[in-house]
Amino acid sequence: MANDLFITVPETNLPNGVVVPSFEVGQYVCSQGEDGKASVTAEGTPWVRINFAEAKTACEKAGYKLITERQWLAIAHNAAAQSCNWTKGEVGAGKLFRGIRKGQVSGAQAGTYEAPCQKERRWLSLSNGILICDLSGNVYQWVFDDVQGDEQGLIAKPFSEDSPSLQAPYPSMEKGMGWRPNAGANWSGYALVRGGHWGSGSRAGAFNLDGGWPDNRRDVVGFRCTK
Hints:
By secondary structure, the protein is mainly beta. The protein is built from two helices and 14 strands; from the N terminus they run ββββββαβαβββββββ.
């Protein structure tokens, strides 16, 4: 749709040397427009209770695609390299800012909502100065796995030691990274979800990596489009 809000993510090198070309991503988690199609606006409440296949289809019907694992990682690594995204104003100092996660709300919030706690900052800045909302809170987001995944985007093999999915600046649950599994974890048949939701607490983070049954429709899982 013409009024959908997309931002440009610069070309990014992942730690394993893979180059993720520049792409456009929804500035906000997708909501459902009046026409029933996926929409990307500040005012829209995230579209939840949608399963993995339905999220992919919703993106496609709007002329977009579901965000991939490599694209998510590009955004997270780019954001983690910016001093303004750290609680003490320097890369690695304090924690990487995380969004709505402390259970002070009981459902997904529109992009216009301002969390009362300053530690639940919803915005991360990229190297080009553009902001992205809810990469690490409010709602989990389905991710098309183009690292461990099959052609449907579902996890198809265990996480290897060198998988870019497990590579983050700091260990799991440290410095605002969020939770992620250990190498060898076998989630075959699952779909990736990332970020965290309004009640995830310390598990939330831009590098949070969880999984869920692809047929599940939950009020804590939404999705994000790219083009």
